[in-house]
Amino acid sequence: MATAPAVSAANELISPPTDAETLTMYIPPDARSSEINAHLTSHPLALSLRASTDFVESRPYFKIPESARDHFLTGGVLSGPGKIWVPPLAFAERNGKSMTILYYLGEDVSGHPGVVHGGLLATLLDEALARCSFGALPNKVGMTANLNIDYRRPMPTDSYVVARAELERVEGRKAWVRGWLESADAGEDGERVKFVEAKGLFIEPRQAATMKRLYPAATSST
């Protein structure tokens, strides 16, 4: 019986859900989660990206096998009410040109009272920049070689936020990406608040061709 979870995970890796299927997999556990999810999926930014044929929408955390999800950081340990409250919505521009991810961050991810932990912000940016790089790399898999972070303003908890990433250039197995985290909505001055900026270098491993099956979230299956 001990082999059952391993077999289940292996099967899920071999046949991961498509991007479109991931959009139907989230079931809110309570009224607050349902409210947040409805706001996220109907946000004007989500609507505009969804209407463009240049972008592919997904909920990448559902590409992680359910039986293994508890062992993943953002898609498991940090996910759920009070944390990364609902599975984020990701919009990948074709050929890795850009990535936009919408989140709602709850009150249980604080570094200081009412302020999102800076380590989580770095993690979310690392993830967004990496996902952007995947589309531009030959085998759609990359690992962080360098990540530079500049913190601009404290991010309040219980906030809708957007991670944006843009491909700067690609050379063989290397991709350079820049990005930032900003408020999902503009303030009274009409501008979105930019909280953190980053630049990163992502390198595809030499054995990437054999790793693709282990990273189903890195590929687009529509």
Topology:
Elements: H1 4-14, H2 19-22, H3 31-41, H4 44-50, E1 55-58, H5 73-77, E2 89-93, E3 98-105, E4 110-112, E5 115-116, H6 118-134, E6 143-151, E7 159-171, E8 174-183, E9 194-203, H7 208-211
Antiparallel strand pairs: 1-2, 2-3, 3-7, 4-5, 6-9, 7-8, 8-9
Count of distinct strands: 9
Strand content: 25-35%
Whole-number average pLDDT? Answer: 89
Shape: globular
Radius of gyration: 17 Å
Looking across the biggest beta sheet, what order are the strands in? 1-2-3-7-8-9-6
Major sheet: 7 strands, antiparallel
> Could you give the order of the helices and strands?
HHHHEHEEEEHEEEEH
Strand-pairing-aware structural class: alpha+beta
Oligomeric status: single chain
Number of helical stretches of at least 4 residues? 7
- Helical fraction equals 25-40%
Give the low-pLDDT segments: 216-222
Distance between termini? 34 Å
Outline the structure in words.
By secondary structure, this protein is α+β, with helices and mostly antiparallel strands. It has seven helices and nine strands; from the N terminus they run ααααβαββββαββββα. It has helices at residues 4-14, 19-22, 31-41, 44-50, 73-77, 118-134, 208-211, and strands at 55-58, 89-93, 98-105, 110-112, 115-116, 143-151, 159-171, 174-183, 194-203. A seven-stranded antiparallel beta sheet has the order 1-2-3-7-8-9-6, with helices on both faces. It has a two-stranded antiparallel ribbon with strand order 4-5. A hairpin with a 2-residue loop joins β4 (110-112) and β5. The radius of gyration is 17 Å and the shape is globular. Mean pLDDT is 89; it is low at 216-222.
